[in-house]
């Protein structure tokens, strides 16, 4: 993949929307559900009538967009705004949403938070902890057949499963990406050990955050589940963290982030 990712690129000193790079969603995607890719942008600053403004941005890209944006290019784009003078904060938001929407082929949402208010959207996951699989379990091969229903078949439950050991690799740089996974479902009870074995397959798997999350969602939906929400809270890189959400039902965009992000 040609582009800024994996390359040494100087940050633009003037507003440069052309630096945004489009990444097509992987096709065929099947039914990947509803949802959002929520990007928390911490390096967000521009000028309004000569006065410097600094914010934390919560950028929402709809899951059904034909493309997403490459994260390093978004970082460089946002930093190209640092010396740009806007008429107002709403004007800045309008320009950013228009540029990113054009890149991804869908309407995105951008909410701003004062830099002192991030604690208001910071939470921690609650649920049944799925520990990492012990050493010796094969990694790097995603095996949906590992997923299974609890031996107590027929028991319908509503529960939240969490794992803080989600690991995958960037498909361009091969650098590890770490995150916390939330699985919230209603249906026949999933065998928790089978989830641990399944997730181990991602530890050496090369895939973008959204691709990994959609694969997890699709494989879980193959089980006898009535409702499912899956979210992956990936840790910050380059001033941005990404939390993709997928759901079997329409889902409002959530600004939620974790402390480790």
Please state the second-level CATH architecture of the largest domain: 2-Layer Sandwich
Spatial shape = elongated
The tally of domains stands at 2
Biggest beta sheet summary: 9 strands, mixed
Low-pLDDT segments, ≥5 res: none
- Beta strands, count: 13
Helix content: 10-25%
H/E order of the elements? EEEEHEHEEEEEHHEEE
Helix tally? 4
Q: Please indicate the percent range of residues in DSSP E strands (runs of 2 or more).
A: 25-35%
CATH homologous group name of the largest domain? GTP cyclohydrolase I, C-terminal domain/NADPH-dependent 7-cyano-7-deazaguanine reductase, N-terminal domain
Q: What is the CATH top level name of the largest domain?
A: Alpha Beta
Give a description of the structure:
The protein has 2 domains: 17-121, GTP cyclohydrolase I, C-terminal domain/NADPH-dependent 7-cyano-7-deazaguanine reductase, N-terminal domain (GTP Cyclohydrolase I, domain 2, 2-Layer Sandwich), CATH 3.30.1130; 123-249, GTP cyclohydrolase I, C-terminal domain/NADPH-dependent 7-cyano-7-deazaguanine reductase, N-terminal domain (GTP Cyclohydrolase I, domain 2, 2-Layer Sandwich), CATH 3.30.1130.10. 18% of the residues lie in helices and 35% in strands. Strands 2, 3, 5, 6, 8, 9, 10, 11 and 12 form a 9-stranded mixed sheet that branches. Strands 1-4 form a two-stranded antiparallel ribbon. The protein has a two-stranded parallel sheet with strand order 7-13. The protein is an alpha+beta fold. The protein is elongated.
